[in-house]
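INTERNAL AUDIT FORM
Audit reference: QA-55
Scope: verify that the stored structure record matches its stored sequence.
Auditor: D.O.
Record contents follow.
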Amino acid sequence: MSHSLDEFADRLQEEINQEVIQTYGEKVYERWRNPRFRGRMESPAGYGRVTGNCGDTMEIFLRFEGEVVSDASFTTDGCGCSAVCASVACELAIGKGPKGVADVTGEMILHVLGGLPEDNVHCAFLAAETLQVAADDSMNRNT
């Protein structure tokens, strides 16, 4: 009996995975399955926390070496798309100075992911806004 249940569970998981790939695309699926940059950062040089209109709260943490972001991480209590978009925002910030970080937009995040369904587009803009708050926080600490 448990062998049948295991097979059923495996088939069901595969169907879910295929549905996610069809709906969100390979890039989003890969980041959802293997999130990068997730977790709190101790003593960040920049910190941003934003709650979007959807109710998702996102935090982004930045660390700098000189004037360049050397490390970034995020947390979110939101949906998988929020986590995926925060991960991309962190990736886009690393290696950039303040101006480069300020230039990261929701459109850039969507481009990296190959787009999102209309109902989830706001997640990219939430991630970009949270990144901007973290970058502003780091600049305010240094003035």
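Auditor finding: record pair retrieved intact. The longest helix spans residues 2-24.
Action required: none
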